[in-house]
Amino acid sequence: MQPACDLTSVSSALSLSSTGSTFRVLLGVTGSVAALKLPLLVSQLLKIPGIDVRVVTTDHATHFYDIGEVPVRVYTDKDEWEMYKTRSDPVLHIELRRWADLLVIAPLDANTLGKIASGICDNLLTCIVRAWDMSRPLLFCPAMNTAMWQHPITAQQVATLQGFGYVEIPCISKKLVCGDEGKGAMAEVSTIVDAIQQYLPKPAEKITAQGDEH
Ligand SMILES: Cc1cc2nc3c(=O)[nH]c(=O)nc-3n(C[C@H](O)[C@H](O)[C@H](O)COP(=O)(O)O)c2cc1C
């Protein structure tokens, strides 16, 4: 398990790539079995030139992948609370929402979908979402068992997120890990990477953004 970050390491990690030429992707991961694709998704994203990636994980999501196999910084709820000791300390969820140009939640499980739809913010990821700069893109990739997907509340909650301006990367049909077959599987990694690439600044925009500070 990766050690919790101290204040110095958080500050330096966040300021490492503060030039306007880097597009910063914050990848949220929740407790769906599809979280096992996290190392693959991160490695595919890192192939895109000019991109920086950080991960924010829920505690349940960590059951599905080995944090040591993720080649970028992974922030946990523990980090949020360990870095805040006194009044002047930075608040991690605010630092990360400032840092990120784009937030993608892949996979978004039924639990966190429900929390986001109703404004609940009881962990690092949902606090970032609650504090999100609505002018920046937020993409979400639902992933759940077919029976969960078919429950009428799912469509309502997905519509609520779309109403906020968040972009759904739809789930797909396939044989799920639990043995059920049907809709509810997370979109393919390649589909998610392609969707994120749509938001990368075009070369001309990059030049304009060189002096920007985030
Ligand atoms: C083996 C296993 C697989 C799971 N897969 C999913 C899933 O694909 N989608 C989902 O919505 N919930 C799934 N769950 C349930 C979530 O992990 C559970 O709702 C959890 O509280 C989510 O917490 P989080 O949203 O904070 O990550 C699974 C649970 C287990 C034990």
TrEMBL record:
GO terms for molecular function: FMN binding; phosphopantothenoylcysteine decarboxylase activity. GO terms for cellular component: phosphopantothenoylcysteine decarboxylase complex. Gene3D superfamilies: Flavin prenyltransferase-like. Residues 24-198 form the Flavoprotein domain. GO terms for biological process: coenzyme A biosynthetic process. Transmembrane segments: none annotated. Keywords: Coenzyme A biosynthesis. Catalyzes the decarboxylation of the cysteine moiety of 4-phosphopantothenoylcysteine to form 4'-phosphopantotheine and this reaction forms part of the biosynthesis of coenzyme A. Belongs to the HFCD (homooligomeric flavin containing Cys decarboxylase) superfamily. This is Phosphopantothenoylcysteine decarboxylase.
